[in-house]
Each structure stands twice: as structure tokens, then as C-alpha cells.
Automatic annotation (TrEMBL):
Cited Gene3D superfamilies: NAD(P)-binding Rossmann-like Domain
PANTHER family: DEHYDROGENASE/REDUCTASE SDR FAMILY MEMBER 1, DEHYDROGENASE_REDUCTASE SDR FAMILY MEMBER 1
Name of this chain's protein: NAD(P)-dependent dehydrogenase (Short-subunit alcohol dehydrogenase family)
Organism, as annotated: Labedaea rhizosphaerae
InterPro entries found in the cross-reference section: NAD(P)-bd_dom_sf (IPR036291), SDR_fam (IPR002347)
Source species, domain of life: Bacteria
Length: 298
């Protein structure tokens, strides 16, 4: 329980990476403010069943303290109300707001997409982070804490996911670099972290599988064999939070797999999926995944 007494705020903690990160911080004893828009009484426009209360209960179950707070990060008043709930500084801020799925379109040129949808995606994916940082960073600076921006991808290569999506995710990497610069001299740490092929609740539903049967999804997407649970990136960020020398990563973009190589943690099934190595050696080279020994990459 090495994070006992530490206070964390995880934005977008209803599901996916945010939930996995909140739970793993709780597993080390942290008090975690679990923030998001979906509660048991009200769903967000994402229209998913997962709730912030469920995430908070998972935090409690592993030994932490989960505090669910409904917060729409497009609304400054909501974030101000969250800040008012926190009667201390913040040791760990994980900025994982997304909410762009209803507006994201694959395979359609940007100029043929609906402009209102594109702007909504950018607002949900970028402006929310700026609002969260503006209001919450004073609490992080007070405690000489750590702030982590969550992105998709560890470099600036464009992989065809769409102009607006790329803009949002590259903005998170830029925020991590800029925050490290602005925090110089404060004893705070700022960086950006990406998952690999995330086996989120949404992706499990997309492939028609459950966490228990996830390997059946490989028939639809062969590279799914290298997927990881949201708890994997959570363990990486928990290890970062527990590292007294974490400032060496200031301004960098880390990944679940690079954190795994650094700290040696495993996913829930005891394996160590290395999406970075898989991408370089299998995806980028055009190898057929079923001709590769996937176990060697896990």
C-alpha cells in the first residue's frame, strides 16, 4: 500500500483506461476521485452501461478509497465543483477524458465529414483536458505531484485513424511536453502515456466477446492476439506514481510496453504483451499474425 495517503484524480474513469488506472492506483492504497459523466442514474451520450460508482467500488475492493464524482469536463462549473470536493492537494492527476467515439468516423476524408461532429470531437478530446488542467493543476503543484496525459500512440506517425482523431491524440503528447516545461522548478512530473491494443469494454463488445473469451476475437482481428486489459496501463502508471525517480521521464511519451520493460509488471493473466515490438516486427513488416509465435511477444 505504498500510495496510502496519496490523493489521485482520474478523469474519464468510467471505463477503459481510466477505470483500469483508477483501480491500480487504488490497489496501492490511494484515495481516487473517480470522475466521469455516467452514473447509475444518468448515462452520458456515450450510452455505455459502465458507471463511475462501479469504478469506485472496484477501487474499494482492491484496498483503495474510491470517491465517485460526476463531472462533465466540457463544463467549467462542473470542474470547479469537483475542485471544491477535494479538501487537499492532488498527488496524481491522470487526464483521460475522451468522449469522442460518437463523433469519430473511420475511412472518410476529413473534408467529407460533418464539421459539427468534427468540432465536437475536438472539444470533447482537447478542450476538456485544457479545462481540467486549468482548474486541477494548482492542486498538483501544491503537492509536488504527477500529471499524466493519456494518448493513443507513442510517436507522431499518422496511421490513418482520421485527421481530427490524430489532432486530439497528438495534442495530448504535446500537452505532456509543454506541461513538463511549465512545471520546471516545481518538483512536479508531467508526461504522456499510451496503451497498446486496448481490450476495453467497448472493444470486447465490438468483437462480440467477453474478457473470459477474448481470444475468440482473434478470428475477426488477428492482431487482437496482442491486446491488453485496461489494468495493464493502470499498473504502469501506478508504478510511475510509486517511483521516487519518475522525474527522469519528464516530458516523455511512455507506453504500456515501455513501462512494462522498465518496471516488470504483468497484465492480469500474468503475461507481458509488448504491442510496440509486435507492431514493429509483425504489423509494420506485413507478416501474417498466425505465422508468428504470439507467446514470444507476451
Amino acid at each position: 500500500m505504498t500510495l496510502a495517503g496519496k490523493v489521485a484524480v482520474v478523469t474519464g474513469a468510467t471505463r477503459g483506461c481510466g477505470r483500469g488506472i483508477a483501480v491500480e492506483l487504488g490497489a496501492l492504497g490511494a484515495t481516487v476521485y473517480v470522475t466521469g459523466r455516467t452514473t447509475r442514474e444518468q448515462r452520458s451520450p456515450m450510452n455505455r452501461p459502465e458507471t463511475i460508482e462501479e469504478t469506485a467500488e472496484l477501487v474499494d475492493a482492491v484496498g483503495g478509497k474510491g470517491i465517485p464524482v460526476r463531472c462533465d469536463f466540457t463544463k467549467v462549473s462542473d470542474v470547479d465543483a469537483l475542485v471544491d470536493r477535494i479538501d487537499s492537494g492532488v498527488d496524481i492527476l491522470v487526464d483521460d477524458v475522451w468522449g469522442g467515439d460518437p463523433f469519430h468516423v473511420f475511412g472518410v476524408p476529413y473534408w467529407e465529414q460533418d464539421l459539427d461532429a468534427v468540432l465536437s470531437l475536438v472539444r470533447n478530446g482537447v478542450e476538456t483536458h485544457l479545462i481540467a488542467l486549468h482548474r486541477l493543476m494548482p492542486l498538483v503543484v501544491r503537492n509536488k505531484g504527477m500529471v499524466v496525459e493519456i494518448t493513443d500512440g507513442d510517436d507522431e506517425t499518422y496511421h490513418g485513424a482520421g485527421l481530427a482523431y490524430y489532432l486530439v491524440k497528438s495534442s495530448m503528447r504535446a500537452l505532456g511536453r509543454a506541461l513538463a516545461g511549465e512545471l520546471e522548478g516545481t518538483d512536479c512530473t508531467a508526461l504522456t502515456v499510451t496503451p497498446g491494443f486496448l481490450r476495453s469494454e467497448f472493444m470486447l463488445d465490438h468483437f462480440g466477446v467477453t474478457e473470459a473469451t477474448w481470444r475468440d476475437g482473434v478470428a475477426k482481428e488477428p492482431h487482437f492476439v496482442m491486446s491488453e486489459t485496461p489494468r495493464y496501463i493502470g499498473r504502469g502508471i501506478a508504478a510511475l506514481a510509486d517511483d521516487p525517480e519518475k522525474a527522469r521521464f519528464n516530458g516523455k511519451v511512455m507506453a504500456s510496453w515501455t513501462l512494462m520493460r522498465e518496471y516488470g509488471f504483468t497484465d492480469l493473466d500474468g503475461t507481458r504483451p509488448d504491442w510496440g515490438r509486435w507492431y514493429d516486427e509483425v504489423v509494420a513488416t506485413g507478416k501474417e499474425p498466425d505465422t508468428v509465435d504470439a507467446a514470444a511477444y507476451r
